[in-house]
Amino acid sequence: MASVMEPVSRTRENRETGWVNRLFNSEGSTPEFQELKFTLHRKLLDRINLEALSSMSGERVRAEVRTAVARLVDEEKTPLSLVEKDRVIEEILDEVFGLGPLEPLLQDPAISDILVTTPHLVYVERGGKLYRTPVDISGADIAKFLEDLFSRRLQRHRIELQPTKPFLRFKIHGYPSSFYPVFVNLVDNAIFWLKDHPEPRIIRLDGHGDAMIVADNGPGVPARDRAAIFELGFTRKPGGRGLGLHISREVLDKVGYNLQLDSPGPDHGAAFRIEPKPKAAPGRAR
User: Fold this and answer.
1) Peptide linkage before 200 cis (omega within 30 of 0)
2) Average pLDDT, the chain
3) Which residue among 152, 168, 189, 194 is the one 20 to 30 A from 88 at the CA level?
4) b/e string for 161-195 if b means 16 or more Cβ within 10 A?
5) Is 0.70 topped by the overall pTM?
């Protein structure tokens, strides 16, 4: 009988990037717990044998994946109690089999219906009306989504996506449809400018204070372009339309965030900063 675990890493092919990417975090989850789940999930996707799973029944598949996750948990050096082990196994299974992101909404008795239009846009019905749902988004969610989405291109161009611990532990409360496309655009641009750059090629996802930073060690942004980089129609990319950065900044502006070109990092590449707008000082009473 074929094993569902492979001894060596495989090329990730034809994986859905939808509900594997957890959009909701359980209350009380610590950053360390989220980081552990992120690590285990990556290892599971690297080592699971999809061909063997495809020939099994649904219940058998879940049982086999549970065994695989439990084995990965046991290999971790992080000390976990039996309760913590069981929790991390169940949450990873919920993510893999499509229930995890919806659990908080499914458990809300005030919600009569859930409308999922895309993996990043969820509406709920309360009292006969539809509402777009803000959620807690962690850096681990974003990093996992980006890794799944760009895995082939990153591998083809020998680019390493490096999320730091501060990034993985970062949290934003908002609409995934406002934030995810911005990160997709920034990483997509970084891959384009890095692909012909000498190795090593690195895209770093970092967190600093209230800011999330996407930086690379590519050629960077020339001084003459820095003032115009967010203008509509401005681009140095052959065939580009100059829309991505402009739209990204406009979208974040509407939800109270700034997108800025940061000072070049230690690798002298491009660096973009996403952070909340400063709160206006309260008006003085007259």
Assistant:
1) yes
2) 78
3) 152
4) bebbebbbbbebeebbbbbbbbbbbbbebbbebbe
5) no
Tokens of 125: 């019905």
Give residue-wise pLDDT tens across range 61-112. Answer: 778 888 888 888 888 777 777 777 787 887 777 766 654 556 667 767 888 8
* pLDDT, tens digit (0-9, with 9 covering 90-100), for 185-202: 999 999 999 999 999 999
